[in-house]
Amino acid sequence: MTFSNGVAAALKKVTIRTEAFIGGEFTPARSGETLPCITPIDGSEIAQLSACDAADIDAAVQAARASFESGVWSKMPPRKRRQVMLAFADKIEAHSDELALLETLDMGKPIRNTRNADIPLVVQTIRYYAEAIDKIYDELGPSPHDAVSMIVREPLGVVGAVTPWNFPLLMASWKFAPALATGNSVIMKPAEQASLTMLRAAELAQEAGIPAGVLNVVPGDGAKAGKALALHMDVDALVFTGSTAVGKLIMGYGAQSNLKRVALECGGKSPQIIMEDCPDFDAAASAAAWAVFYDQGQVCTAGTRLLVQNSIKDEFLAKVAAVAKGLKPGDPLDENTRFGALVDETQMNTVLGYIEKGGAEGAKLVCGGERALSESGGFYVAPTIFDGVDNQMTIAQEEIFGPVISAIGFDDFDDAMRIANDTVYGLAAGIWTSNLNYAHKASRTIRAGNVWVNCWDGSDITTPFGGFKQSGFGRDRSLHALDKYTELKTIWMKLS
Ligand code: NAD
Q1: Catalytic one among 52, 266, 300, 367?
Q2: Distance 243 CA to ligand 1 centre (A)
Q3: Per residue in 460-485, pLDDT tens?
Q4: Active site annotation includes 19
Q5: Rounded to whole angstroms, what are the CA distances from 443 to 52, 54, 428, 436?
Q6: Is 139 among the residues known to form the active site?
Q7: Which residues contact residue 9 at a Cβ distance below 8 angstroms, ignoring those fewer than 6 apart?
């Protein structure tokens, strides 16, 4: 099995930018260092990416600060800023096939996902925040007759964003779109495993009229470029999506430097609860499978803890396993592939390590459990289900970030609630039940930022997204996200 011809053909259809985008220009890392950019489709090198460090971050911060202070964007009339952002969204849309291809080449998710979901959602995100620009009003307080109190929102200044590889451009857009809409200048530090679409998007932003220095992209290792951005004394806010472990570091960097604002969207270990009165077992089984196998499980909200009432567990798991067994890992560039590659060899080995640990701790392997398509040279793991999992096992407590379901039995509703909340995470949860009381009680009992009833992953740009507990704080999406990028100012005027 070789996918290399497809990779070679796809490379001819994309524009690959590998250097940092600072002050409106592509520029190599000041150190001259580069990182190999490997496609997980067949394990081949497709580019050398600039490996930036603190010196490049400093240049980007200077460019961002200068653009912010100049007012070229921060003081642009709102309607004009809206027009430029709409033009940016149009550019992304016009290049959506190319960006979808680039995303798939870079991180291995199926082209049908990047083309039908990721890139259209990026366009929607930029449009949503562009439209908000000239529709949100400030406030007047209930002041006495001889005074006027105004409560206004102002941009923060220079915003740094450190983002993950699982939805590279979409997660980035959840940051840069509201940050730009509110008039900030931005520095993006994309994940080193998947930086290509963000670099290309910055070029398209400039073509759309976003002024030089307003949107900068600095690729490189997290421990160098990301850390330098989070520690920089002239960055006003650091917004982050990634693992909880790195989120904790980011919070520390904020405290060690200038007390910059920090917002964290971190990991999850979400429970998907199937009650014996589930209204539609087939729909629930399909949702339970796709809640973990979509994008090969590299989704922060993945419903990896499948809690099934013991009275129906065997029958239900057989249905989920049937979905899993029908899902064959395949070439991510093939339109028919629904299950692609993991992002890189390291991630593949991490997932295989967890699978080994699950077996060693006594969980029962129902299906999958092994590397797939190794002859392609790429990084694939078969959809995997473990039964007989205890919630204290490693595979029930730690985020695997791969296609692994840990099925856990429970006796009754209270038991399910106890297990659901027995985790350090709180990003998402789901419950399938016909009982209105259970649906409502579960929604309020589970400590998570998103709760789904009789569905999984229902979401929209209009609704907030984020976590409780160690899944982080701060919200992406919706108008609530604008709070992260603005400072409230009170102006009290005494009248004579
Ligand atoms: P990661 O934490 O390894 O990396 C995220 C980003 O942090 C990357 O850009 C990386 O370069 C950077 N980084 C790494 N070390 C750093 C350091 N010391 N200082 C500053 N930056 C550093 O996460 P990942 O593997 O890229 O992404 C997967 C994780 O992201 C999972 O835990 C997943 O749950 C989480 N995630 C969360 C959400 C959400 O909205 N809650 C969404 C998507 C992904």
Answers
A1: 300
A2: 4
A3: 999 999 999 999 999 999 999 999 99
A4: no
A5: 44, 44, 10, 11
A6: no
A7: none
